[in-house]
Amino acid sequence: MKDYLIRGLAFNDEVRFFAAKTTELVEEIRKRHDAYPTAIAAVGRTATASAMLGAMQKSGDIVDVRLAGDGPLGKILATADEEGNIRAYASNMQIHIPSNDKGKLDVRGVVGTQGELVVIKDLGLAEKYTTTSPIVSGEIAEDFTYYFAKSEQVPSAVSLGVLVETDNSVIAAGGFIVQVLPFASEETITKLENVIANIKPVSTLIHEGKTLEDIAKILFGEDFRILKSNEIRFSCSCSKEKYADALITLGKEELADMATEENIETVCSFCSEKYVFSQDEIKELIEKL
Ligand SMILES: [Zn+2]
Predict the structure, then answer these.
(1) Residue 259 pLDDT more than 80?
(2) Which residue has the higher pLDDT, 251 or 28?
(3) CA distance 248 to 285
(4) How far does residue 88's CA lie from ligand 1's centre (Å)?
(5) How much is the pLDDT for 262?
(6) Span 171-175, mean pLDDT?
(7) How far, in Å, CA of 182 to CA of 15, rounded?
(8) Å from CA of 273 to ligand 1 middle
(9) What's the number of CA atoms in the CB half-sphere (13 Å) around residue 67?
(10) How high is the pLDDT of residue 68?
């Protein structure tokens, strides 16, 4: 089953929800960065939340997420859009720390408990909206819950999960966000709190083979409708042309210096793709200036 994302309304249309299966996306990130289990759990959770944040935007808009904690993982960066293109990485993905006292991957331990979650909505036409909220947990789902409550004034339940196999591969990843709409009744809120408190971890459900529609059914019974369902994927917007443009900004002298040395190798932080510029190619760039 390919990765996908659904969005819809439930409980008499008093709540809206997003759910995403991101197993392939997170495994792709792990492979590209040779990430260790706790690191990919943290980055995978952030990528999954970002995929759903992307789905909340208008077509063509991009959302950038930066989770900067004081843990050894460093900054997590993710980008997502409404079409389901997602990329993510962290500064140090080859870190390993012992499991937490529950025997689980210690995501908080690598993310840290101090820092900030920054969400930048790029609406094109040089219009950007930046909101910052503090890290309150380091487990990531709680940090997004806090972000929605404080920055967007939307009470939300956020669940994110990444299951890593003993060979370090990602075997299940996904999440859901359920948001209470302003006119929701007390009864609906109570009903929702009960199901959220009792649902299994979302990575377990996906590992059991449950579809997103099954998960919606567990959450809302028959009282939901899906408004849209679409595929999502790892996708990086980098290209050799973009790196060439970046090299040009260094200026004629700097480029001329580089052209006397060996080939220039650039590496995209997001996807680890390498772009090599030969001395001839550098000379061509200089001629363009
Ligand atoms: Zn890239």
Answers:
(1) no
(2) 28
(3) 7
(4) 10
(5) 79
(6) 98
(7) 9
(8) 6
(9) 34
(10) 98
**CA neighbor of 76 nearest in space, from 41, 25, 37:** 41
**Cα Rg, the chain, nearest whole Å:** 21
124 has a pLDDT exceeding 80:
no
pLDDT at 1 > cutoff 90:
no
Taking the centre of ligand 1 as the mean of its atom positions, its distance from the CA of residue 268, in whole angstroms, is 5
User: Distance, CA 64 to ligand 1 centroid (Å)?
Assistant: 15
* CB contact set of 205 (below 8 Å; sequence gap of 6+): 174, 199, 214, 215, 218
> How far, in Å, from the CA of 71 to the mean position of ligand 1?
25
Question: Does the predicted TM-score (pTM) go above 0.90?
Answer: yes
